[in-house]
Amino acid sequence: MKREKAVSLSFTFLTVMLLAIPAVASGQSVWVLKQSTLTYHVTHPLHEVAGLSHAARGKGECQAGVCNFLIAVPVKSFASGDTNRDLHMLQIVRGAQFPMVVVRGQMPEAELKSATIHADFQIQFSGQTAQFKQVLFHVADHGNQIRLTGTIPATLTDFKIPAPELLFVPIKNEIPVMVDMTWEEQK
Amino acid sequence: MNARAARLFLGLGIFALSFLPAGLLRAQALPATLTGTVTGPSKALIANATVSVKNVATNQSVATKTNTSGAYTVPNLAPGDYEISVSADGFNPLTIRATLSAGARHTADLELTPTISLSSLGFSTGEVKGNPKEQALLNKRSHMLQIHQKLGLITFFPMVASLAAATQAGGRHNTGSVGRDVHMALGSATAGLYFATAYYAMFAPKVPGVESRGPIRFHKAMAWIHGPGMILTPILGAMADSQASQGERLHGIAKYHGQVAIVTAVAYGLALLSETKPNWIPGLGHHVAALLPFHRHEAILSASNHAKTAAGVSATAQAGKAN
């Protein structure tokens, strides 16, 4: 009777261990975007414009040393301080037809603990997809949160957007996007 | 005897060496074969995944697709180090490295993880789905406002010229005064262009649920001054012309023709400036700042990061762009 109980206990222990091993071995961690400020910059000979959004949502999954992440932000959420200009921006980037900016990418998990990371990602925007490689971000580690800051060197031609004009003069092709994101690891 | 032996050994050596390159060539030519299966979670087979095999030394790559059983085979690969990449719709791309040896059949089974979906971020279908009707409305609106903007700029020139010509239009003369005729012609051109400009702003489609914010509010407020002014100025001008033509001194409301015209032109100029250089209008910079909840944040950002951004852009623009 005692032997049977011992065998049963061993079997239960073994089952629990076997079920636990994949979870431990996979080493999966999940990160969620807690706060963000994305700012695009537009330059025209007459003035410079910055449009901000705090509406980005994101999630990252790290497995086998690689982190895959997804960030999405509604195009409508960018505000430059002038609704007329924002509506024109929305029109020119076809924001009603393609309402989201979607960023998908990968980076080595080990870089999350370093001072800088180099991320590869693709951005879907205005019905186009542009690839960016080895974009530098600075990392500030705050326990289970990390803050990433950097600039995405986007251009109008990356997304086949015709340069909007003000008084017959087009804006510059470069539209760098400053990124300031705080990610939190989910327990 | 020794010389004979030496010649014999030399001959045998040459004979043996003649086989060596052929043997080596044969060894180099022996290709490797890569095979494997692409699976997703719970070992579900993934058909039609793209498997790309790149030789690290030569940068040459070969691509193939998985069959309905998720299997792939890439034959005739030269021995060496390879990067094996796999991508499939709905899954994160995966890249691994492998060393293939001559003549061997290597197996690389690849397990993909599903991509994170937009719905998992909490966005509703309505938020992520395009709205062609709204896009058409925005297109029409922008088209009309672009015409408004260009006509508005063109209108400014005859307006200024008309004001300048007004200096030669005064005095109690009969009709036929050249200065007055030029002034009236320029005034008429200004009025015509102005009302065409106004048409494109007034009849541009409105976007529901959007409240005006920023310099556009000032631009629209100015229209309440230059709009009535552009109606009143020609009327007062006609009255003034009639009185002057009859040799009368300007009297009644007609004597305010000049002042109304100047106020109208100033309001019009400010409306133009508010959309191009709002900071040039005293007080408007502050007025705009008050309307922007993030203005302070933006100022901090531009102060602290302007140099960093410029440096970051120039540094990453070259290396960071992949397409």
Please, could you describe this protein's structure?
The complex is a heterodimer of chains A (187) and B (323). In chain A, the strands form two sheets. Chain A has an eight-stranded antiparallel beta barrel with strand order 1-3-4-5-6-7-8-11. In chain A, 19% of the residues lie in helices and 50% in strands. Chain A has one domain (27-186): Beta Barrel (Lipocalin), CATH 2.40.128.110. The two termini of chain A are 42 Å apart. Chain A has two helices and eleven strands. By secondary structure, chain A is α+β, with helices and mostly antiparallel strands. Chain B is an alpha/beta fold and 323 residues long. Chain B has two domains: 28-111, Immunoglobulins (Immunoglobulin-like); 133-304, no CATH class. Helix content of chain B is 54%, strand content 14%. Chain B has helices at residues 2-29, 125-128, 132-165, 178-202, 215-245, 257-276, 284-291, 295-320, and strands at 32-39, 50-55, 61-65, 71-77, 80-87, 94-100, 105-107, 110-111. In chain B, the strands form two sheets. In chain B, strands 1, 4, 7 and 8 form a four-stranded mixed beta sheet that branches. Chain B has a four-stranded antiparallel beta sheet with strand order 3-2-5-6, with no helix packed on it. In chain B, helix 3 (132-165) runs antiparallel to helix 4 (178-202), helix 3 crosses helix 6 (257-276) and helix 5 (215-245) runs antiparallel to helix 6. The longest helix of chain B is centred in the middle third of the chain and has 34 residues, at 132-165. Chain B is elongated, with a radius of gyration of 40 Å. Mean pLDDT of chain B is 80; it is low at 19-27 and 286-323. Chains A and B meet through strand 1, strand 3, strand 4, helix 2 and strand 5 of A and helix 3, helix 5 and helix 8 of B.
